[in-house]
UniProtKB/TrEMBL annotation:
Residues 43-146 form the Glucose/Sorbosone dehydrogenase domain. It comes from Ameca splendens. This is HHIP-like protein 1. Transmembrane segments: none annotated. Pfam families: GSDH. The gene is HHIPL1. InterPro entries: 6-blade_b-propeller_TolB-like, Glc/Sorbosone_DH, Quinoprot_gluc/sorb_DH_b-prop.
């Protein structure tokens, strides 16, 4: 890589890169070891973990069935899902099925415009399609998506 800070051994000496990794160590052979910490559990096929970059320090985890959960900085999961598109998402109980909720991203200016984008499988008639939708956060609750805003 052209950026030396991302290349070993600079990773260990760059505090910006290691400040949120937990414990970072080097073994006797000089190999980098990261000690990971569990931040969420009890989820069904989680496949996306993102933050909104809105200063709230929440993170969001999306499940293949069409649910997105908001987690607070103390790692507690909110009781109601941030987004629930389970009725629209095409998925099945087959192990290894690659259909369903497939991704989420927040607009770079989400803090100001409340826009987010979701990528998921749908069934239209007898056809299976991929849908990319824009949603907005609820005007009344920053922890819920306005499901009627989908476009």
């Amino acid at each position: 890589m052209d950026d030396g800070d991302y290349c070993y051994p600079h990773l260990l000496s760059n505090q910006k890169l290691t400040q949120n990794l937990g414990r970072v160590e080097m073994d006797s052979d000089g190999c980098l070891q990261l000690c990971l910490e569990e931040v969420a559990n009890g989820l069904r096929n989680p496949l996306a973990m993102v933050h909104a970059n809105d200063g709230t320090h929440r993170f969001f985890v999306g499940e293949q069935v069409g649910l997105v959960w908001a987690f607070l900085p103390d790692r507690s999961k909110l009781e109601k899902p941030f987004l629930n598109i389970t009725k629209a998402v095409l998925t099945s109980s087959w192990e290894g099925d690659e259909r369903g909720f497939l991704g989420i991203t927040f607009h770079p200016k989400y803090k100001y415009n409340g826009k987010l984008y979701v990528y998921y499988s749908v069934e239209i008639g007898f056809d299976e399609r991929i849908r990319i939708s824009e949603f907005r956060v609820s005007a009344n609750d920053m922890n819920l998506v306005d499901h009627t805003s989908e476009r």
